Protein: Helix-turn-helix domain-containing protein
Amino acid sequence: MTMVSTSTPPIPQPTPGNALLYRIPIAETKLGVSRSTIYRLVNEGELELVKISKRSSGITAASLHALIERNKATIS
Structure:
């Protein structure tokens, strides 16, 4: 008789290289801007804010990386 495992596979834990969300202080550091600038970019639609809980939120990594890509300077 074969035993079938009923346990679920472990959920992969995010590493710094593949994070889905950045907490506000980390987003500030990554962009080199202030907290108010982060929230201004959210209000302008440049960054996407996700509420994690009543008192906690994060910036999506995808929106942060997209902002950087959109604003890359080209040297001619």
